[in-house]
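During the reporting period the student researcher (J.K.) took over the structure-prediction task from the postdoctoral fellow and processed the backlog of single-chain submissions. One of the processed entries is reproduced below for the supervisory committee.
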Amino acid sequence: MNVLVINCGSSSLKYQLFDMSDESVLAKGLVERIGIEGSKLKQEVEGKEELVIQVPMANHKEALGHVLDALQDNAKGAIKALDEINAVGHRVVHAGEKYSGSVIIDDGVMAALEECIELAPLHNPPNIIGVKAMQELLPHAQNVGVFDTAFHQTMPQSAYVYALPYEYYEKDHVRRYGFHGTSHKYVSQRAAAMLGKKIEDTKIITCHLGNGASLAAVDGGKSVDTSMGFTPLEGLVMGTRCGDIDPQIITYIMAKEGKTIDEMNDIMNKKSGVLGISGVSSDFRDIENAAKEGNERAELALDVYHDNVRKYIASYAAVLGGVDGIVFTAGLGENSISSRATICKNLEFMGVVLDAEKNNVRGKETFINTDDSKVKIMVIPTNEELMIARDTVELVK
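J.K. obtained the following structure tokens:
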């Protein structure tokens, strides 16, 4: 079975075509600047020259039409006809409390996604457009929705209810939802396999550390707590997001500086995090280089970030009542040797002991703990697209 995985952003989309008989990638590509001047599609197929298409793409439907044409390209494509695509898996950011797992998309699911637009106004609309486009362009293929929030729907109520008047949860659906669920699910499953245990018998802390970052406490394969909340702003310090702060700071700055709600949202989401502290960049590579050159604010940004992650790891160990493994994944988690080492420092009391030599690795699935470490430490490159494809096959079959 061939599964096309689609991830529609506001002005871009990523895609991969999988042959699920062996989970091989037949093609992968990226479309950028949808609805903006300079639209471009790039596609890679192993053993073939990269395909680049530069034509105006006014919307996601037009872009997906070009994707399907590219997949069938005589010289640089991966298939001969569209009927070779059996199903389409869609990454959808928000499903609210509607779904605790992936689902085949029907009219009821589409209505639920429309209802969740107010919870994810930047992400759900393009996700929905992508589904509608594929329903029209590939009418023979079933569409499956895989939700960022679904994996965290197993959290107990005590983990997702905020200490606000309960009516805001009942009436306005204000609660912790959590995100990066597909990534946390994938790496926790891989961690169980690496540990040689049934996932039902594991307690794992997954650290998805990229420009956006979150941790999850995964008990027996189920998320029981996660750091992102009602929105992706809560939790860890991130590239440009502030993470956890005293809520009163918001009204204090608004009153003192005369900021509007929109301006304050922009500050917290796009101008804070390690960018805000360092004044250098939201890219950790730039900050690390600046710190090496003696930039004190860059050093401070890294210290704040590492301390923040370490505190969450320790707190989730308490939530789980013990830990079998800690997983580092996503851009920073997979590639920053120094960040992993600093985060694990002072966790020896928990039985977490990093091996400096084993930690000298980037983007490779491996153990990086010492032989006598009670808690296993793992680097596992995330693969959200493959997780989406697996869920799609399971449902369609």
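The committee noted the following: The chain has a mean pLDDT of 94.
J.K. will present the remaining backlog at the next meeting.
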